[in-house]
Design a protein that fits this description.
Length: about 220
Amino acid sequence: MEIRRCQTQVGDQAIAYNHYYSDSNEVCFMLSGAGYAYDHPYFYFSRMMLLKRGVNVIEIQYVSDDLFSLPDEQGDAEMSRRIEAVIDEVLRPRTYKTIHFIAKSLGTVPLVSLIRRGLFPDATIVLLTPLLKDPAIVEAIANSRQPGLLVIGDQDHQYSPEAFERCRSSNLVLEKIKGANHSLDLDFEVGPSLQVLGQMMQRTEEVLFPVSVKEN
């Protein structure tokens, strides 16, 4: 495995991304939150788990200050444009048999846009703390047939009990963490927060790499 520091041009913006490269035919695209970066626990340990299995990992550095000066609709479109440019560049020279996505918070917006448009229908997705206060995002998740996992805490400012229940009509495994905030931490409780982290990493691995049971 080698780390390739790459970038692609999107208009006048250079979008950087890290490619943890291997010869595997499996790839996972990671989409960070606005303030939750790739060195934060849920991305750090997800990457560790993926690299152990030899999966190519792509960390897209799509967030920049100018995004937040745009109206919501324009900002969402620009995020999608940046992310899809990187995805296209990564997929152009190689054929990957298996594609995964892991997104957190703001990063779930462009990922849900991909889902809504029917792109990568066979990809497995992990939605960490999606923006469930946004009805369009909730409906897109609820109507999707995408396999994957959705994780959110009931103390997250983006959590909505009604929206969470609506998402049950999807094919996603839903995990509601009692007492967890938007970082999926349990207040300032270190031990319980680490326990939840471990449980969710195990859950993520089970969803991304399901073990098929052979019939006798």
